[in-house]
């Protein structure tokens, strides 16, 4: 069959010679497979045959993912079923018949080791015959038949693509790695940097670090060039960082074109700098939803900078009792400072039974905006009276009380008191939020950095730095 190979540019010559059009190992390299199958089909006359042969993923490629070792331009791997699926996507069902589908394996050598190109036939072939449309079977076809419109099938059968295209790139030759942190944080990234050097041993690596880490970075021997750039102060306690303010200077400092740029910082503040890098592939920690420019995104644990929650309950104001002149509505409980009884609990409840653990209760409380002598006393009590946390408040703010429960079956109570010898404050109470904290299970920044390098290596080397191209 290889002697009969004909490029699609010579289809008119093939028609003059006979009644078959042959495509041998062409379809697998073409991005828009539906358009080219329609074009080949449109050049046939009724009764002519289209023969398509592609490499068999098991017999020839012998791998489950691109890139192909022997056909680097190949965009899709084929089984008999996937080849037939592409034809069904491209053509109206009454415009062809499948006359033969099978594996071509004459003389195939099954004993060759994996790294050697297969010997013998190792392809899949399908033979389809162009037919006349069946009158009246399809709903309202266009005026012209499908084979007279090579660029698209009839609207009723122009299906979504089931074959996702994958863009295959060569291994990156120029890599930029950003490890922009405070003094000492470079140490946390050493395992990741060593992985990058080992995985991309043939690439030129530029490493961007703070000026205070430049000497240490050079001693590591993991980069071909060290670039000093101060996006943060030397120590985290010196001043509040403003990474976005350094963007213009960063653009002026990093002007080269790279195949791959990696930001190893676990915190997301330096992604604005990564976005400015000229690179074919950009990799960082975060999500594509927040950073759509990331080609390779390692999601960040959402609890990284806060306590993981084992319980999170919102308790409405109706779960609390009150005394005095407080006025209850559907939305909250409102108290006027002029009529609140002195030296007594204004509000208490909800008497929920808790299991052992560390808790936070957040009072949903709006206070009158005044800075006089008015005070309210907030507390948390357990088992009907044992106070375990308290605070005095005089104006708007966030009112969180942390406490611990040691015994099973402990009763929880949150209360609001007036304060002796101090005026009260008008307030509105809307309930509260009870959070039970659990031990955090987040990764350390060194683990995030190493996982990102592993992920990049998987996408770039193992699976060919693939990016999905959306159907349509």
Automatic annotation (TrEMBL):
Gene3D superfamilies: Glycogen Phosphorylase B
Protein name stated in the entry: Glycosyltransferase family 9 protein
Provenance organism: Sphingomonas arantia
Organism lineage string: Bacteria, Pseudomonadati, Pseudomonadota, Alphaproteobacteria, Sphingomonadales
